[in-house]
Each structure stands twice: as C-alpha cells, then as structure tokens.
Design a protein that fits this description.
two-stranded antiparallel ribbon
Length: 341
Amino acid sequence: MRLIASLHGRGRWPDAAARLILRRHLTHRVEHLDRLAGQSGLAYSPSEVSASSLAGDFGTPPLILPPTALESVLGPSLIESCCAWSRRAKDLAAAEEEMMSMQAERAQLDDGLRILDVSPGHGGLARWIRARWSNSSVTGLAATEEHRQSLVDVLSANEDEGVAIRLGNLTALGAGDQFDRIFAIEALPGDAGLDQTLRDLAGHLAPGGRMLIQLACHRKVSYRFRPGDGHELWQGTLEPGCLMPATDLLPQIRSPLPLLHHWELSGEHYERTARAWLARLEANRGTIFEQMRVATGVADPTPLYRQWRLALLATAELFGFHVGQEWWLSQYLLGAPGATT
C-alpha cells in the first residue's frame, strides 16, 4: 500500500491499476479478518478503545481548508460523513438531505428540544435542524479554537443565533447541562474509553432523551489502521492507529443507556458518497488548487490534491467491497430512562 500511495501521489499510477490493487488488498484483508474472527482474545474491550480513535468522516481533506473550498467537493451542507442514496437522491445535495432526514426521524426529533451535536463538522446538521425546528436549540462541541471559529463564521453567515459552539470536548459542558437529543455522527468526543464516554454522555441526557450514534463499521472484527497495512491510503484523513469498530462493539458496552434500536446501512451508501466527492474534486480542480495554495503557501499543491483524491478512491473501494456487505454504516439509538421506542 505504501507503493500505491507513493506512485499515485506522483501521478504515475492510473486509476484502473490502483483499483485493481486496492481490491486485491481488500480481499487479503477480509481473509485475515475472517481468521481473526474465529480467534479469542483479539477483540478490543470498550474500555481499551478511546472515543476519539474511531475511524470516520472519510470526506475530511488532508489539510485544513475553509468552507468555501470544501463547497467545491462536499455537498452544500458540507457533510464529511456518509450520505444516504435512496431512489429519490439524484445528486449529492439530495443524498445529504436524505441522511439528515433519516437521522432526525430515527432520533425522533421535534420542535422545542435541546440538542447536543458532539461532532458538528461544519455545522450542516445543526443548520438543517434549526431550519425545520426553529424553537429547538443546538449546542456543538469544537475540539480546537480554529474549528470553533470556522463554525462561528459559517453560522454568522446564516444569521442563526440558535446554535451555540463551545470549545472543548465533554469538559466544555457544565454538570447541569441537559439535552433532549444527542447526535454523535462518525465521531465521539474525548480520549476516554468508549464505556466511560457513553457514561459521560448519559449524564447530559435529560430523562426520556435519546442519543443517536452513527459509526462506520466492519461486519465482524474491530481492527486498527496501521502504517504498512493500508493506512497510507488515508494519510491526512484518518489518524494512524484509528479503530474501525465491529458493528457489534458498541452494543456490547455496559451503558446506563439501553440500546433501543440498531440499524445497518449498506456500505454502498458510503461508496456512492465517496465517488460523488471524487467527481466534484476532479471537476473543480482549479478552484481546489487555488484554495490549497492559499491555505498552505505551497506553490504546487499537486501532492496534497492527489493525496485527497487517493483517500476518496480508497474509501469508495473499501465500502463498495462485497456489494457493501463487508464494511458498512451502523446507527444506534440509545435512550435515557423514560425513553420509549
């Protein structure tokens, strides 16, 4: 995989050859994971997996870009996570809408709720919620000051005062902060173990409240992206050593919040999302190059452009493998005492 990343990064490897080698790599990876699935003692304990180490947001560029640049690749809501492609979704904008509608329906949103988004990205879901339920308030958590300021700028441009952005992880919340709904879309905050993170989030869920968690998953085995075994393909997008969780990892956690529902979506949704991002990246290459030059000060951003392009190509191949039945998307609805199904 280092060879593919190196040669593709220098423009010396055509897409057809890259796809062929990626599929061979994934075939070997699946064979290895199937062997691991039958062995004991190799599963990750929820307490050993930090919340921040989960793999997700496969649309993230390999460098920090302003929202104006991301609009040239992502959809209009700037969603860096998986979109939903029903028969009604004819383009990326519609697929973003489909996914946010699905998330809202499954979280049983209503007007007048207090909502916490622990992975607000570029504020797409928060803005979408406020446009439909104007009496609801949304609080988002930004891990860095740069991320917080970017979100504030986007929200100011939309003149929406119903969204508050706090700097920090769960420590940014006060002991008395309570929410009726919590969203964690392909990311969970903090460096504590998954079990502790769920307990911390449960402490901020009001009686009868619900929490929707969405994760990219493997069908059987939790494993880490490590240098030399394919992580190079997502350099700058995924952190080294990040974890691809098995679809049943989170349900195994002893949480004060009962699991109300567990849905699984075919990986083909992520495949189509990545291919849509890739098509827009190529169609807007000139704009992206200029934005990369401004962001980095580098005269020729070709290596960064190719790095992002390879990550999107690899994402499409990963989630499209075995017709989307090897890697897919899981959504989990957890409820505080008093929540009904």
